[in-house]
Amino acid sequence: MADDQRGRPSGSRSGRGRGPRQRSAQAPAQRARRGDPARDTAYAVMRAVADGGYANLVLPKALRTAGLHGRDAGFATELTYGTLRMQGLYDAVLDAAVDPPGRSIDPTVRDILRLGAHQLLAMRVPDHAAVSATVALARQHVGTGAGGFVNAVLRRVSERSRQEWLELVEASTTDPVERLALTHSHPAWIVRALRAALIGHGSSTAESVDMDLVALLEEHNRAAAPTLVARPGLGAEVELERAGATPDETAPTAWVMPSGDPGGLAVVRDGRAAVQDAGSQLLALALASVPVDGDAEPESWLDLCAGPGGKAGLLGAVAAQRGATLRANEVQPHRADLVRNTLAAVRHAHPGTVTVTVDDGREVGESDRGRYQRVLVDAPCTGLGALRRRPEARWRRTPKDLAELGPLQRDLLASAIEATATGGVVLYSTCSPHLAETQFVVQDVLRTRPDVTLEDVRPLLLDRAGNPLPDTGPGPTAQLWPHRHGTDGMFLALLRVG
Ligand SMILES: C[S@@+](CC[C@H](N)C(=O)[O-])C[C@H]1O[C@@H](n2cnc3c(N)ncnc32)[C@H](O)[C@@H]1O
């Protein structure tokens, strides 16, 4: 008879043999009835994410509310992020561990089981502690019966090692993509798209692609250390150094913090520095440094899709140093507010350099034809290049998103070209390597504009020492990769308007 998740009498346990791994001999009733604050917080964030929340926004608030700091906050963060990333694998494990295999599991109970599976299979938590604390969580949030069910399932999970579970799950299919999807916890359509992107961007050969794909999927499942940007000309560098940050070699403006919460630094709070991926920094610096034709003084720069303002923050600081002006545009008013916030330090230090507008970028080409020398289109995209930073994103995105985003991406790029002066440049970028959002968009738009040429963007991607970043593809576009460059998977195409 199956275990009952909701507390109705259940038959004897499956009796599957006790494995070599240690487990709790305590009955659920004897265990603590309440979860501990760190696990409670992880559970609350999982439920908020199930309701549509974003872990990177919900978790910091939940940690503050629970008063968690230091190691406890670290534990809750690893538990939440790790569980969300690996939930595809854990679901396969849990579906095999329930009795009978594949029986349906209540979504709330499944979240609790996922948290337990992560502790058992990926964290240094002793089995008995992982099981009893997760049972306590189930009792507290669902009920006594759920506690018994969770106890039974997690005991079965604890009977095998992570490697044994991986082998078992892998054996459930012969399709190589499905296998990678299960063992590396990604939806299969994303694995397929990433494989096509590695080849399509010229980043991998037919021989190397399978190895590269595994390296990329593994990187998506690692916690990414936060990179900071020191917005130039605002004196952020000295304070970052004083706080223990060190210069990052990937980009001239990038810094890394070995430990601690960068959000707590005054220099981050006042906007002279910010958390920003080094790839995003390289992209903004590339646009700022490319030579443009014409003698416009001062130069006018446009960030067409600026919210929440990360790249505009760097562009604005560089524009101020160069005597140029920047218009940071965003269609959504609340995101335009975020841009204003992000740009506060630059606006304060250099009044008149940056303006924020709320317009549909698709209309800017017509209203401001030929007005700008440098234009950034950091297009809305699926974000498949930033999966390591957004743990739930892989489970939310669907191929339908691509169909919806495609026309918007093309319209925004076409509008950006219209808004660019003769001899000026447009940088089209996405934090996705998906071919449908990158190469295909650029090729389609170029077909309608014979006066626009694609230029090699790779020589503009310079590291702190001034050397071009290696392995960005055969050109003229560039593709950055988490497993190669330690950055998000940014795509860049540089277009010159003739
Ligand atoms: C990838 S994000 C930009 C990220 C930004 N460059 C940064 O570094 O912080 C894309 C932005 O485009 C905005 N967007 C979507 N449709 C738009 C449109 N029609 N016109 C202007 N912005 C648009 C979205 O609201 C979103 O804020």
Record field, number of beta strands: 12
Continuous helix count: 21
Structural class: alpha/beta
Query: Are any ligands bound, and if so which?
Result: S-adenosylmethionine
Instruction: State the shape.
Output: globular
How many strands, what sense, and barrel or not for the largest sheet?
A: 8 strands, mixed
How large is the radius of gyration? 25 Å
Q: What is the terminal-to-terminal distance?
A: 74 Å
What is the mean predicted local confidence, pLDDT? 93
| Share of helical residues | 40-55%
Indicate the proportion of strand residues.
5-15%
Which stretches of 5+ consecutive residues score pLDDT under 50? Answer: 6-33
Care to describe what's here?
S-adenosyl-L-methionine binds at residues 305-311, 330, 360, 378. Residues 1-39 are annotated as: Disordered. The chain has 498 residues and is an alpha/beta fold. It has 21 helices and 12 strands. Strands 5, 6, 7, 8, 9, 10, 11 and 12 form an 8-stranded mixed sheet that branches. A 4-stranded antiparallel sheet has the order 2-3-1-4. Helix 14 (310-322) links the parallel strand 5 and strand 6. 51% of the residues are buried. The model is unreliable at 6-33 (pLDDT under 50). S-adenosylmethionine is lined by residues 280, 304-311, 329-332, 335, 360-362, 378, 380, 408.
